[in-house]
Amino acid sequence: xxxxxxxxxxxxxxxxxxxxxxxxxxxxxxxxxxxxxxxxxxxxxxxxxxxxxxxxxxxxxxxxxxxxxxxxxxxxxxxxxxxxxxxxxxxxxxxxxxxxxxxxxxxxxxxxx
Length: 113
Description:
Order of helices and strands: EEEEEEEEEE
Radius of gyration: 13 Å
Number of strands: 10
Shape: globular
Largest sheet: 6 strands, mixed
Strand order of the largest sheet: 2-10-9-4-5-6
Structural class: mainly beta
Number of helices: 0
């Protein structure tokens, strides 16, 4: 079972940037498809982005062109670089190991002026 720990959330103004990190335990991280999801208050958890073991990425339409998912297999870490943040990006962001089904505890991102 992979354990995931997110960090990097916080309060940012509209138009600002944040980088989220997700540190994973386990020796098979490099083979795992990893993803980011988010859940806004009163809404269901939604897909944000995924990255394959080979670095192929996919994004939700709502974040395409603004967010970038990446991974560093040597550090067992996946990142989510978020730019041009909007009020609607406010949510708890969760790291997810698609391959193993594991979820992190989430990190709060609040976009507010």
